[in-house]
Amino acid sequence: MAQNPLVLVVEDEAAIADLLKYNLEKEGYRVAVASDGDEALMAADENAPDLIVLDWMLPKAPGIEVCRRLRARQNTRNTPIVMLTARGEESDLIRGLDMGADDYITKPFSMSELLARLRAVMRRIRPGLADDKIVCGDIVMDRVSHRVRRSGRDIHLGPTEFRILDHFMQHPGRVFSREQLLDAVWGSDVYVEVRTVDVHIGRLRKALVEGDESDPIRTVRSAGYALDA
Ligand code: CA
To answer: Phi and psi of 80, rounded to 5°?
Structure first.
């Protein structure tokens, strides 16, 4: 089973951060909390988030700067960012959207409104999340029956290859380092050699590609792997 999506909450006000964490966890998300930009970048390096909730009023570097820095990194280049802004700060808002934020919520916000917005963003970026069936290019995965087909042909995968493909299919096009794949597929508390990932990627490729079919898994030199649709 793929892990639940990870939300990184960047907010220095502990009461708000706690409230967000509590409610997001109740919704089934995993949550990491950072109280400033440096912590946010460190947390994102450690475990790539699926979504970032970023407060605009932060100590040290302001949210807009944190947003720029997150966008400059491989890990979080394409991660949706929902910013929290004070009401009436229109110029912040415009600059934030310019800087690559995907959506915004003005404070004070209702939790149900925030959760609805995050659900909408998640549906957009991980359409597979709500469905038992995920489609990526000519690959179709049925997560209930654990069946995978490519161009109508059955693909037989071992459990590890299945989990790797599941993870890729939920984030098409996104590059994952070997360490990130280890965390996502094996879990962060298990010690597995990084090279093991290459072995399983090799098996997955072999299973997916027949004859002169294209290889859907892209190797990104010194970065990792991605699944291209
Ligand atoms: Ca704040």
So the answer is: -60, 135
C-alpha to C-alpha distance for 103 and 91, rounded to whole angstroms = 15
How much is the pLDDT for 1? 42
* Stretch 20-41: mean pLDDT: 93
Provide the whole-model pTM.
0.57
Q: How far is the CA of 15 from the centre of ligand 1 (A)?
A: 10
Partners of residue 8 on adjacent β-strands: 32, 52
- Output the CA 78–ligand 1 centroid distance in Å: 23
CB 10 within 8 A of CB 55: yes
* Cα–Cα dist 228/161, whole Å: 16
CATH number of 6-129: 3.40.50.2300
Average pLDDT over residues 201-214: 95
* CA of 36 relative to ligand 1 center, distance in Å: 9
Select 133-227's CATH number: 3.90.480.20, 1.10.10.10, 3.30.1440.10, 1.10.760.10: 1.10.10.10
